[in-house]
Specification:
It is a single chain. This protein folds into 2 domains: 108 residues, 2-Layer Sandwich (Alpha-Beta Plaits), CATH 3.30.70.3110; 101 residues, RNA Polymerase Alpha Subunit, Chain A, domain 2 (Beta Complex). The chain is 23% helix and 36% strand. Strands 1-2-12-9-11-10 form a 6-stranded antiparallel beta sheet. The chain has a 4-stranded antiparallel beta sheet with strand order 3-8-4-6, covered by helices on one side. A two-stranded antiparallel sheet has the order 5-7. 26% of the residues are buried.
């Protein structure tokens, strides 16, 4: 069975979809690849020229490192990303009083800049100054969380079968529909497809296993992917799949070499 995708919900910074035809190892491999292998830009070094603020240099450097930076991966070859040889300079020169925000950083590359200009960095009092250069490089989440492009999790796709012998089955149906879950009504039961988390009220627990049962849909998972802003959320998934394919091809080639020796 070839994998099938069905998009359930799409927003500017998140996407939820069903994948059918894969097993648990592949689902987890996709999740881990998105988190740890998809490259992004992040501040890796900071050079301070002046800092009169109440925060130590190290604290400001840490805050700068955790600011999501837009990442134009189409300009880079996936084969060359391990080199990490492209550096972007983000300069900051600010004087108080007032709050310094991520939008105050000036980038040497207009395509690599804070994804959100409203992230606070440091508050300066009257007469205080901060002058620095922050150097951003490509990296991966497996090396540091600052390079993670977002967040991803998955759950089993399940169907909850509720017998109409349950006295308040209509209440469950309304609850599921209110949550936006697909509900099928059969002659003797209703079937709730859990495209998102659904918790039964406690009063229905006595019917579990008898009149209410949960069925795991084989080889089907509901993925939720959220972007920090470095990359479009669809690109995060697409790049992760490309990386998985490249790794698989490399592994197969190595096996063929071993077999021919």
């Amino acid at each position: 069975m070839e994998p099938k995708f069905q998009i359930l919900e799409k927003r500017s910074d998140s996407i939820k979809f069903i994948v059918e035809g894969i097993d648990i190892p592949f689902a987890n491999a996709l999740r881990r690849t998105i988190l740890s292998e998809v490259p992004t830009f992040a501040v890796d070094e900071v050079e301070f020229f002046e800092n009169d603020s109440a925060l130590f240099d190290e604290i400001i450097a840490h805050r700068l490192a955790m600011i999501p930076l837009t990442t134009p991966l189409e300009r880079f070859s996936l084969d060359a990303l391990d080199l990490d040889d492209y550096t972007v300079t983000l300069s900051l020169e600010a004087q108080g009083p007032g709050m310094v925000y991520s939008g105050d950083l000036k980038s040497s590359d207009e395509t690599v800049k804070p994804a959100n200009p409203d992230i606070p960095i440091v508050k300066l009092a009257e007469g205080q100054k901060v002058t620095l250069n922050a150097f951003a490089k490509l990296g991966r989440g497996k090396d540091h969380a600052k390079w993670q492009p977002g967040f991803v999790f998955y759950k089993y796709l399940t169907k909850i079968h509720v017998s109409k012998e349950v006295p308040e089955w209509k209440e469950l149906k309304k609850l599921a529909e209110k949550r936006g879950l697909p509900v099928e009504e059969e002659k003797d039961e209703i079937i709730i497809t859990t495209t998102k988390a659904f918790y039964l009220p406690r009063k229905f627990e006595e019917y579990l296993g008898d009149k209410i049962r949960e069925e795991v849909v084989p080889n089907s998972f509901v993925f939720t992917v959220e972007s920090n802003g470095e990359l479009p959320v669809e690109e995060m998934v697409a790049i992760a799949l490309k990386i998985l394919m490249r790794k698989s091809d490399r592994f197969i080639n190595e096996l063929h070499k071993l077999a021919s020796d």
